[in-house]
Design goal:
The complex is a heterodimer of chains A (152) and B (277). Chain A is of the alpha+beta class and 152 residues long. Helix content of chain A is 33%, strand content 15%. Chain A has a five-stranded mixed beta sheet with strand order 2-1-5-3-4, covered by helices on one side. The longest helix of chain A has 14 residues. The radius of gyration of chain A is 15 Å and the shape is globular. Chain A starts with a strand and ends with a helix. With 277 residues, chain B is α+β, with helices and mostly antiparallel strands. Chain B has three domains: 45 residues; 111 residues, Uridine Diphospho-n-acetylenolpyruvylglucosamine Reductase, domain 3 (2-Layer Sandwich), CATH 3.30.465; 102 residues, Enolase-like, domain 1 (2-Layer Sandwich). Helix content of chain B is 34%, strand content 24%. Chain B is built from 13 helices and 14 strands. In chain B, β6 and β7 form a beta hairpin. In chain B, α5 packs antiparallel against α8. The model of chain B has no long low-confidence stretch (mean pLDDT 95). The chains are: A alpha+beta (152), B alpha+beta (277). Chains A and B meet through β4 and α3 of A and α2 and α6 of B. The complex binds flavin-adenine dinucleotide (FAD) and FE2/S2 (inorganic) cluster (FES) (2 copies). The site of one FE2/S2 (inorganic) cluster has 10 residues of chain A, from loops.
Chain lengths: 152, 277
């Protein structure tokens, strides 16, 4: 099926298989920030933003992207400048192996776009669908707090 | 290609598209796509409901809240009146999965999945919701769910909406027990609603999840509770009844015995949390 959608701000038209996951389709289009961890909706490594909401691309079919506005981490930096969320993750060392990071960043962005001033509890709730095997989460929560401050 | 995909734009088109053998409807896909991945279902065709405007609505009248089939958990939680008028449903849906799952998964999908661990489903058992089918028939939630992953839906039928009667309760409680983190399914889930008269229980509803083939209501407890005060002695009695009512099974997450013990202990939350009429 021909999928027409807005990917990271640009109109894209690409042929997808009916049974192809959005995850595989986006990676095929070069969006390698979209990672496959569990493939079952539990780890959040494949998180993208579709029509303003963070969703897992492993439990979504490519044809469902038709007509949407979709963002991956590739679309966040502008003119070589990192998005405040990305910058906060780098600055605070909230990244170790980095596998979970693009998904974390997308969930943090979706959270801050809806709720620019989240409490610590709201940050934890907003990030509960993203698992990290390395950092122990403290630095990730701090990074989201910092990004919120920078943005305001 | 394992299966084809279509997204009809109206309910008339949907009825035509769902005639083929091996067709599965899909809302959020958070249950269906997992089942396909593990080989539990093998569709020939997936019909997405997401492009049908007439299934995406939340309506209210003086008697009930009506939630269309494709309303996501996140959209429902954002509906202003939900927290105030249906706090038990708010609390239960708020615990489902993660933001990503709540952004895609739907209340109707949760019902049709008919899991004994369904959290939205448990709240709907307590609120005595009714399911509106495509042929206009309205079926009570307990008649709709006929077994684990089994519903009263017949071939060619689909769910159009969920009707939730309005009712006022003085006390509401929902808890998932034995959950390690947000993403693991709970070992046992429980909820209750209480109406008080003076300092006594006038009416109580109690439901458990993951302790039987479906979510269950404990009608003997509900009957027993009428006219009682919430005291330690009362809860001792309730706890005994719960222990004999639940029929859990062993699975990878917990043994039957552990589930039974958790279920009979969890009602002591009434005392621990100082719940009183
Ligand atoms: C990581 C993860 C965590 C989860 N955590 C929880 C949790 O904590 N609590 C919980 O209760 N559930 C949980 N779930 C299960 C699931 O997300 C929910 O049951 C969700 O509500 C299902 O809705 P859906 O729209 O995604 O259903 P779908 O997968 O789209 O559909 C479910 C079933 O219903 C059928 N169907 C869908 N719509 C219709 C219709 N209108 N008419 C007829 N048939 C239809 C489909 O064919 C399918 O068989 C979790 C799932 C995942 C992947
Ligand atoms: S790969 Fe999608 S949630 Fe883990
Ligand atoms: S940094 Fe390695 S999984 Fe999160």
């Amino acid at each position: 099926m021909l999928v027409r959608f807005k990917l990271n701000g640009e109109e894209v038209e690409a042929e997808a298989q009916d049974d192809e996951r959005a995850l595989d389709f986006l990676r095929r289009l070069g969006m390698k920030s979209v990672k496959e961890g569990c493939g079952e909706g539990e780890c959040g490594a494949c998180t993208i933003i579709v029509n303003g909401r963070n969703v897992v691309s492993c439990l979504m079919l490519a044809p469902e992207l038709d007509g949407t506005e979709t963002w991956t981490t590739e679309g966040l930096s502008k003119n070589g400048e990192l998005d405040p969320v990305q910058k906060a993750f780098v600055d605070l060392g909230a990244i170790q192996c980095g596998f979970c990071t693009p998904g974390m960043v997308m969930s943090a962005k979706a959270l801050l776009d809806k709720n620019p001033n989240p409490t610590e509890e709201e940050i934890k709730k907003g990030m509960e669908g993203n698992l990290c095997r390395c950092t122990g989460y403290f630095k990730i929560v701090d990074a989201v707090k910092k990004a919120a401050k920078e943005k305001n | 290609m394992d299966y084809t995909f279509v997204a009809p734009k109206s309910e008339e088109e949907l009825l035509k598209e769902m005639k083929d053998e091996g067709t599965y409807l899909m809302s959020g896909g958070t249950d269906l796509l997992v089942k396909i991945r593990i080989g539990k279902v093998k569709p020939k065709k997936i019909v997405s409901l997401s492009k049908i405007p007439s299934l995406k609505f939340i309506k209210e009248n003086s008697e009930e809240l009506i939630v269309g089939a494709t309303v996501t958990h996140a959209e429902l939680l954002e509906y202003k009146a939900l927290r105030e008028e249906f706090p038990i449903l708010f609390d239960a849906v708020y615990t489902i999965g993660s933001p990503q799952i709540r952004n895609r998964g739907t209340l109707a999908g949760n019902v049709i999945n008919a899991s004994p661990a369904g959290d939205g489903l448990l709240a709907l058992y307590l609120l005595e919701a009714e399911i509106e089918l495509s042929n206009g028939k309205i079926v009570g939630i307990e008649d709709f769910v006929t077994g684990p992953s089994k519903t009263a839906l017949k071939k060619g039928e689909y769910v159009r909406a969920i009707h939730i009667p309005k009712s006022k309760w003085d006390i509401h409680y929902f808890e998932k027990v034995g959950q390690r983190n947000a993403m693991t399914i709970s070992v046992v889930s429980v909820g209750w609603l209480i109406k008080c008269e003076n300092d006594k229980i006038n009416e109580m509803r109690m439901a458990f999840g993951s302790v039987a083939p479906t979510v269950i209501r404990l009608r003997d407890v509900e009957e027993f509770a009428k006219g009682k005060k919430i005291t330690k002695e009362f809860v001792d009695e309730v706890s005994k009844m719960v222990k004999s009512d639940v029929k859990p099974i062993d699975d990878v997450r917990a043994s039957a015995q552990y589930r039974q013990k958790l279920s009979s202990n969890i009602v002591y939350r009434m005392i621990e949390e100082g719940i009183k009429c």
